[in-house]
Design brief:
It is a single chain. This protein has about 350 residues and is mainly β. The protein has a domain of about 110 residues: 7 Propeller (Methylamine Dehydrogenase, Chain H), CATH 2.130.10.10. Helices cover about 5% and strands about 45% of the residues. The protein is built from two helices and 28 strands. The strands form seven sheets. It has a four-stranded antiparallel beta sheet with strand order 1-2-3-4. It has a four-stranded antiparallel beta sheet with strand order 5-6-7-8, with no helix packed on it. A hairpin with a 5-residue loop joins strand 27 and strand 28.
Length: about 350
């Protein structure tokens, strides 16, 4: 990818800057995390914050290797498959080089929420009126209009690995719906109405408070072929099976809350992490609970947001105090890294 000069308002950080930037932010008050992602090899985690900071940390030692101060919140973040670039959706979509800190692409046409297709080169975004298809080289490839627009810009977009199925979630509205699209045919499959346990109070999370029932679907996850959709709110997780046309409520948590879910690549398992640090895994498509692993320590009750990879056996969580914990699901070992590491290499 040919790098373009960075925008004037955002240049590359120096090699010694990330830890110092993190310390300065904490002195002014700890913001909340709005999005979090693991690299494909599990060696890096990206975090987006309410103060517009995008941060990349290593999962092996917790070192902060890159900090960008964008000034705008992002609710979507992803790594390219090689882990060399981070993709965020702020006022448009930006592709940043982790090593150099430079913006290499700006794709303003993709909207406010974005997901990366499995080929690692195609992006699916949405502005609330359509799915927008683009490529990392900056080209817009197509647009699939909704049969009726969402009432406001979407909070999340999900796409299957094969790029054939897309889902966009509405912001608070009377409809509280998801739009499921066949991206190849350019036609909607269906509109899905959110059950009460799938709704989420975004203002409370932005203020750093514990989640409470609200009116916004939080996270959308499609299985690799798009047959299964998990809709996860802070107070539950539901599974939609498009083959059978049925919905199953897998988890409803009146006190703890759901942080993240993930499908295994072969679609045989669905896992969920809770805000107390516990992990639950179901067999697919039956929805039978096959594992319930409690957190090793009560210290996990302050989990703010997490990411989970069943294929890697890795669970990373960001806490309300800014610390990062990384758990190996194969052996149960957990490492906890402080918010302000003293080393940067």
């Amino acid at each position: 990818m040919e790098a373009r000069p960075p925008f004037s308002e955002e240049s590359a950080t120096t090699d010694a800057a990330p830890a110092a930037q993190a310390q300065a932010r904490r002195r002014s008050g700890q913001p909340s995390v709005t999005a979090m992602a693991l690299s494909a090899d599990g060696q890096q985690v990206a975090l987006c914050w309410t103060d517009g900071v995008v941060m990349v940390r290593r999962t092996g030692d917790g070192v902060i290797i890159r900090v960008w101060e964008t000034g705008l919140m992002s609710f979507s973040v992803a790594f390219t498959p090689d882990g060399k670039h981070v993709i965020t959706s702020e006022d448009g979509v930006f592709v940043r080089n982790v090593e150099t800190g430079l913006i290499v692409r700006a794709l303003p046409f993709l909207g406010s929420a974005v997901a990366l297709v499995g080929d690692g080169d195609t992006l699916i975004g949405s502005d609330g009126t359509a799915f927008i298809i683009g490529r990392l080289d900056g080209k817009q490839m197509g647009k699939v209009a909704f049969s009726e627009p969402l009432l406001s810009y979407p909070i999340d977009v999900a796409v299957s690995l094969d790029g054939r199925t897309g889902v966009a979630g509405d912001y608070p509205s009377k409809r509280q719906q998801l739009c499921v699209f066949d991206l190849e045919l350019g036609t909607p499959r269906r509109w899905l109405r959110m059950p009460p346990s799938m709704l989420y109070d975004l203002p409370a999370e932005r203020a750093g408070q514990r989640p409470s029932p609200g009116a916004t679907p939080v996270l959308l996850f499609l299985s690799s072929t798009g047959r299964l959709l998990s809709v996860t709110g802070s107070y539950g997780s539901s599974l939609y099976n498009f083959d059978s046309g049925r919905r199953r409520e897998l988890l409803r948590c009146s006190e703890i809350g759901v942080s993240r879910v993930d499908f295994s690549h072969d679609e045989s398992l669905l896992g969920a992490t809770l805000f107390d640090g516990s992990v639950r895994i179901w067999s697919m498509p039956s929805g039978r609970l096959v594992e319930h692993r409690e957190a090793d320590s009560k210290e996990f009750d302050d989990v703010q947001m997490s990411v989970l990879s069943l294929d890697l056996g890795l669970f990373a969580a960001n806490r309300y105090n800014g610390a990062l914990s990384v758990t190996d699901l194969h052996n149960g070992n957990t490492k906890v890294f402080p918010a302000d590491p003293t080393t940067t290499s």
